């Protein structure tokens, strides 16, 4: 398990940090891009350092471990960053919406003011994101095995030819 831990930690840290950096994290909207890439990175690093060919089970374990690490980083860093950057992001969205449809921007502004700056929705969103990071990093780990593993799996040992029926010695 230790040979999986280092690649999973690196993949998890990468996916966790990229998922909480403002504006960079927006690429997670695209099918949880950072989670998939974090799982794939963990698999790539494992394949590169493993003496034996990686299996899909290895990819799933690596993706799951990277997802746990990334999800924890996302929770620990993401909540304070969201609270700090929330007003800026809301103002940016409203200003973009004003250019498209000013009436919709007014409605959005009213909804934002009615919601206030409560921490409850931020925590719920962070938990949902952590679960999504976990699931999609497993997918990334599974996708990484056929992409990065080019070695052939060891063939099964040949059946025993000694003995009588069923391989039992007479």
Notable traits:
5 helices; 170 residues; mainly alpha
Describe this structure in words.
The chain has 170 residues and is an all-alpha fold. It has five helices and no strands. The chain has helices spanning 2-20, 33-49, 56-100, 102-115, 120-148. Helix 3 (56-100) packs across helix 4 (102-115) and helix 3 (56-100) crosses helix 5 (120-148). The longest helix is centred in the middle third of the chain and has 45 residues, at 56-100. The radius of gyration is 23 Å and the shape is elongated. The two termini are 42 Å apart. The relative contact order is 0.19. The mean pLDDT is 87.
Structure, briefly:
The chain has 170 residues and is mainly alpha-helical.
Regions with little confidence, pLDDT below 50 for 5+ residues: none
Task: Specify the overall morphology.
Answer: elongated
The count of DSSP E runs of length 2 or more, i.e. the number of strands, is 0
The overall pLDDT, averaged over residues, is 87
Order of helices and strands: HHHHH
Summarize the amount of helix as a percent range: over 70%
Structural class per helix/strand content?
Answer: mainly alpha
Q: How many H/I helices?
A: 5
Q: Could you say how many structural domains there are in total?
A: 1
Radius of gyration: 23 Å
Q: Terminal Cα separation, in Å?
A: 42 Å
How much of the sequence is in beta strands? under 5%
């Amino acid at each position: 398990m230790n040979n999986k831990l280092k690649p999973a930690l690196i993949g998890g840290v990468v996916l966790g940090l990229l998922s909480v950096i403002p504006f960079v994290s927006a690429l997670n909207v695209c099918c949880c891009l950072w989670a998939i890439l974090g799982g794939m990175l963990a698999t790539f690093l494992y394949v590169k350092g493993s003496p034996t060919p990686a299996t899909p089970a290895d990819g799933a374990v690596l993706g799951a471990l990277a997802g746990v690490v990334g999800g924890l980083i996302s929770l620990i860093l993401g909540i304070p960053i969201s609270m700090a950057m929330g007003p800026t992001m809301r103002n940016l969205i409203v200003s973009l919406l004003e250019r498209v449809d000013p009436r919709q921007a007014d409605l959005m502004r009213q909804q934002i003011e009615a919601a206030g700056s409560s921490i409850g929705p931020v925590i719920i969103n962070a938990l949902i994101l952590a679960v999504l990071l976990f699931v999609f990093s497993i997918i990334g780990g599974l996708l990484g095995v056929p992409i990065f593993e080019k070695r052939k799996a060891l063939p099964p040992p040949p059946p025993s030819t000694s003995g009588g029926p069923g391989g039992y010695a007479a």
